[in-house]
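Regression check, coproporphyrinogen III case 344:
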Amino acid sequence: MTAPLFLRALAGEPVERFPVWMMRQAGRYLPGYRAVREKVPFLTLCRTPDLAAQVSLEPVTRFDVDAAIVFSDILVTADAMGAPVVFEDGGPRLTRPVRSAADAALLHAPDESRVRPTLEAISLLRKALPASKAVLGFSAAPFTLVAYLVEGGTSRDFNVTRRFLYQDRAAFRALLDRAGDALVPYLRAQARSGADALQLFDTWAGVVSPEDYRDLVAPAIARVIDGLGADRPPVLLFPGLGASPVLEEAAATGADALSVDWRTDLARAYARVGAKVRLQGNFDPAALYAPIPAIEARVRAMLDAVPPGRPHLTNLGHGILPDVPVEHAEAFVSAARAYRPRRT
Ligand code: CP3
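Current build output:
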């Protein structure tokens, strides 16, 4: 039996069509998701395996995307590590941010009972889906997890985090290692539960300088990927918003694919990373507000930038926005599925 299209492309094999899925594809723009969320709070949804699996399946059954990503959140792990998280209207908030080495010492490997629902949701997805669809597990990458732990919530520049990084570099490095070491057993458990590939979200890594990325961020990612062992599933890395300047460093972490944002020039990105890694992306999520024919034309133009013979993983450059019309998301996926890669 041939492997799913998504995994063949991820392995660098030539493909007859580029696989497609959308970051944050199970979310508020979907009526089925909204109906579930009217009944249960966000964290309850993350912690109820059959509901989590149900919302993960909605984009697959609706749009025929090539991969399902398990429904959870990168901060469910922070909570399981001993840093309580509340989800409020303005976004997630950590009630006890980590601001010192002593705070960091209180963090532990994710509590099995807290992450078990996500593992169960992965098994349910693997059972529910045909072999042609890939099931994706995920976690934050170390820097982004640490950024939330330190900052206590979302921020524009993550100034508290960058301040910590400069005030006590050794403690910051230790915190990155601690976060990474805690993520490894969780990611391995996702693979054992049926995840065919794992995506690491380093959403905020673009806030640091290239020097700090090289010295701190990239080694922490490499440590996680190494820690997964030789039998690991393929790893996709979202190097972060605005991380284009450090694409080469991200490509050297050992990740099989980089998920690039829309500010990254795709043709140049291919030239920069060569055949060493695959690329995923990078449609501007806001371009899904364009009229449907414009979305279709933009998808084709984006994919025309892929060098002949390279298997691209079609996706958005970041998560889908909550009020995108469903038909526009559908048009994006259909146009991606209809595209035939150039051979020469
Ligand atoms: O991709 C999927 O469909 C799977 C589910 C998923 C969620 N969050 C669900 C979610 C995934 C993969 C994530 C990852 C995540 N969470 C990231 C990395 C990816 C990225 O977008 O950069 C980040 C930075 C977070 C942290 C987070 N979670 C924020 C900042 C917010 C609030 C802003 C927002 O989008 O609402 C969340 C909440 C969240 N996570 C929601 C969903 C569907 C919305 C919660 C709701 O239903 O109200």
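Comparison notes: The longest strand covers residues 134-140. The pocket of coproporphyrinogen III is lined by residues 23-28, 37, 42, 69, 71, 73-75, 87, 91-92, 138, 154, 201, 203, 318-319 (CB under 6 Å). No diff flagged against the previous build.
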